[in-house]
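Subject: Sanity check before I submit

Could someone independently write out the structure tokens for this chain? I want to compare against mine line by line before I put it in a report. The sequence has 331 residues.
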Amino acid sequence: MALGENQSSGATEFILAGFPNLNSTKTELFFVFLLVYLLILTGNMLIVGVVGADTRLQTPMYFFLGNLSCLEILLTSVIIPKMLSNFLSRQRTISFAACIIQFYFYFFLGASEFLLLAVMSVDRYLAICHPLHYPLLMNGAVCSQVVLACWMGGLFPVLGPTVAVALLPFCEQDAVVQHFFCDSGPLLRVACTDTKKLEETDFVLASLVIVSSLMITAVSYGHIVLAVLRIPSVSGRQKAFSTCTSHLIVVTLFYGSAIFLYVRPSQCGFVDTNWAVTVVTTFVTPLLNPFIYALRNECVKEALKDMFRKVGAGFLGDLLPVKSFNRKTVK
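---
Independent answer below. Compare away.
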């Protein structure tokens, strides 16, 4: 069956309900979310740029952080631009094909991010608990393979549920999806067939990805806390904790909201509250990640200062010959 055709006489497009029960006008919401989106792009692009450009940041931790920023840029770009365009549109529609594509990339990138967060926690565990073996265990080849596995681990498992959703009959033309994007629960709710088996499949997959990566993260940080408590000096303990506390804040927000949304047998009954929790994963954590992980880190601050100095010097270097030429021409 071609994407966009349906088993029933039904939907070739959906209407996205957006944000219910908000007193703000569409214009106000548009500019608020546009500002947040621009901040997300700017912060995460800065991380990707500085990690790639500065040799001092060519370490496993920053390599993983650069990939995390790439995932955040892509994840938010799958959702927010369409949402912003709907604020300016009276129809707020999305085609069936675009909805399924959005559905797929949202869950693919989200699953990859969970796996990467687990890898980052293991990386911190090895760096703190096994510092002598760390360079051998986390060399360049291993880091590249692990990151590739994270991306592939999100890419393939989501294919099956996406095809299953695409083949569902949606009987109502212009069915209203009670969300600001094509999420799983709201989509299943407007299908005109029994979706219990698909919901159970989604529950199993979400549990495997989210709960397993959460357990890895929790075990890693449990060992880190025990190792840090054995450090004799207070300054040593503070330094070790400072590298992990910010990570734990973001991980708690991300995992907490995802477990509430997806690790439950039925998603259809909670769609009225889903949008509020989804804001955390779509807006809050992508906005916080650059500031919590990197922009408050001294190494990253120094690298950014050097990068801006080089950019400024290059700009002035290009500008000065032009001014000199103009003076000679005037004379």
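---
OP: Matches mine. For the report I'm noting this point. The radius of gyration is 23 Å.
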